[in-house]
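JOB MANIFEST
job_type = single_chain_structure
chain_count = 1
residues = 139
[input]
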Amino acid sequence: MTAARPSLLNLRKRGQFLFVRAGLRQARPSVIVEARQRAETGHIGLGLTASRKVGGAVIRNRARRRLREAAKRLLPDLGVPGVDYVLVARQSTPAVSWPALLDDLGTALIRLRADLISGATRTRPGPAPKRGRRTSKDD
C-alpha cells in the first residue's frame, strides 16, 4: 500500500514569502531553495520567484515554469509535509539543461530535509549590527 503524497499549495502573499525567507536556505548553481516549517502540517507550500536579474518578462516566466514543473516532480517525494518552500530562479535557470536543474533542486531538497528533520535553525547570518554615526571629526 502506497502512502498518500502530500499536495502542493501555492504561496501567493508577500507575507508568506517573507515568512519562508527567515528559514533555511540552500543555494545551487541553477536555483536557490528556501524552506521553513509551518505550525500546521499536511500539505507542502510552494512559492516561485524570479527577479529582473534573471532577464526580461519572457525569460522570467520561462524560469518560473521550469521551476514549477521540477517542483511538481520532486517536492512530493523529497519535500517535508508542513513545510513551505520558495524556489528562487537564478540567471542560469532558464538555460540550464533539464537534468542539471532537476539534480540541483533534488540535492538542495535532500539537504534541506536533513536540516529540517535535525532541527537546524536559520542558516544565513542575521543583519549586520547598525553602526553609530561619528559625531566629531577628531576620531
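[summary]
The chain has a mean pLDDT of 88.
Helices lie at 14-21, 57-78, 98-118.
exit_status = 0
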